[in-house]
Amino acid sequence: MSQIESMNPAEIRQQQFSKKWRGLAPLEVKAFLDKTADAMAVLLQENESLRRNLDRQQGELGEFKRREQLLKDTLINAQQVIEAMKGNAQKEGEMIIHEAELKAEKILHEAFSRQAKLKNELEDLKRLKVTFSTQLRGILASHQRLLEEHEATGGQTVEV
Fold this sequence. Notes:
- It is built from three helices and no strands.
- It starts with a helix and ends in an 8-residue tail after the last helix.
- By secondary structure, it is mostly helical.
- The relative contact order is 0.03.
- The longest helix is centred in the middle third of the chain and has 127 residues, at 26-152.
């Protein structure tokens, strides 16, 4: 603190000077000291007001910096959450695709198995048809011979 800052208006007003021969006019000095004291009082009040204002603004600045950091932290956290959600969605999508591929493979396997079973059944039916046709032709041929023999004997019963 300088000498001027340590002084106050009351000290200026009460300041006494020694009297010298042919010195300054005491009333003018007193008026000047009063005027200087008043100016100093105004300056001290302004200085105190400015200090309070500065302290308040520094407090507000500190609060704004705290809020800014909080916003930055919130944005970083939100970005991390978004990235995690993207990663989870990617993994979930890959799992769904993998499960769908497995289901498709199972369906194809079942379809091929069913197709093979139906082909086997069709082949069995074709063989059964051939066997049935052959047997039916044999029965028809046998009945044809019996009918012809019956007609040849004039309607008499033929023993087989």
